[in-house]
Design goal:
Helix content: 55-70%
Structural class: mainly alpha
CATH class of the largest domain: Mainly Alpha
CATH architecture of the largest domain: Orthogonal Bundle
Number of domains: 2
CATH topology of the largest domain: Farnesyl Diphosphate Synthase
CATH superfamily of the largest domain: Farnesyl Diphosphate Synthase
Strand content: under 5%
Radius of gyration: 20 Å
Number of helices: 15
Distance between the termini: 28 Å
Order of helices and strands: HHHHHHHHHHHHHHH
Number of strands: 0
Length: about 300
């Protein structure tokens, strides 16, 4: 193995470490993903997670967070301009971009969302304004993942956009307490004022908090439903992964409803056992999966 290949392997290993070191509702690069694609998902995730962490650095000022993200954007620009990076995340990302001919726009949109967060005082007047955000913070992720599997058509992208936005919105409900305490409100004014909550600062102490969240659960479930045709429109292990992702989303919505929407009291999470059951159920539904754990050719 050449020194260059060793360096690239080390870069992907670092991305894997970053990816597996964070809690997610559903494991990144799960066993449902073909082995040859997992390292590329790790590269995408490491880029995103690192940028997200920059935006969330509460020990830094807004200006400092933005400088870190601007440096991240400059590194992204450099690899698209043909520069070989020293940063292991970007070294792995460059390899992934080149192998799958990934467009630059989704990465730029994601960085727009992180910079929006980094500026602080996150507020939205309407659901349309919130959608402007998820179009940047969530939808590009699905577009990139679809591209890894060779899907680039507008219809599948639209379905994916709905699923990804729904997942992002569920995460907002889970993290509502932390976000509100740090000056970020992902409940549009249009949503909470109908419950007599005057402003964002009153949400956290409002008796109507649970009712607000339950309302959002219903809206999110409808968005998720609009994306469901994607699951059966793809083949192989991506179909299984999407089945599992959607199952995890529905399970989380059920957990939030079981709390009467009171995610302000405790952050709902999927347990390791629940994640394993989701994976097993997704595989069990596939005719290509045999009880002995063998996959048919082509998945």
């Amino acid at each position: 193995m050449s020194k260059t290949n060793e360096t690239l392997d080390e870069a992907y290993a670092e991305c894997r470490r970053i990816a597996l070191g964070h809690y997610e509702n559903f494991p990144v690069g799960s066993l449902l993903i073909p082995r040859n694609l997992r390292k590329h998902l790790f590269a995408l995730y490491a880029f995103l997670r690192s940028a997200d962490d920059f935006a969330d650095l509460t020990t830094r000022t807004s200006s400092e967070r933005l400088r870190l993200l601007q440096d991240w954007r400059a590194k992204l620009a450099s690899i698209y301009d043909g520069t070989i990076p020293e940063d292991p995340i970007f070294l792995a990302l460059l390899d992934t971009i080149q192998e799958f001919d990934l467009l630059r726009t989704p990465f730029e949109l994601l960085l727009d969302a992180f910079e929006f967060d980094a500026r602080g005082e996150v507020r939205f007047e309407t659901y349309e304004d919130l959608h402007w955000y998820t179009q940047r913070s969530a939808e590009p992720v699905g577009q990139l993942v679809l591209a890894l599997f060779g899907y680039r058509d507008a219809e599948r992208i639209e379905w994916s956009n709905n699923i990804c936005s729904a997942l992002q919105l569920i995460n907002f409900l889970q993290d509502a307490k932390e976000d509100l305490c740090t000056g970020r409100c992902y409940f549009p004014r249009q949503a909470f004022q109908k419950f007599g909550i005057a402003n964002e600062k009153e949400i956290i102490s409002s008796e109507q908090f649970g009712t607000l969240v339950l309302q959002e659960c219903d809206r999110i479930e409808e968005i998720l439903r609009k994306g469901m045709p994607l699951v059966e429109s793809v083949s192989g292990r991506l179909k299984l992964e999407l089945r599992a992702v959607v199952s995890g989303a529905r399970l989380m919505l059920g957990k939030i409803r079981a709390m009467n929407g009171r995610t302000i009291d405790a952050r709902p999470k999927l347990s390791t056992l629940e994640k394993r059951r989701i994976l097993f159920d997704a595989m069990r539904k596939s005719p290509s999966f045999q009880g002995g754990g063998q996959w048919s050719n082509g998945v």
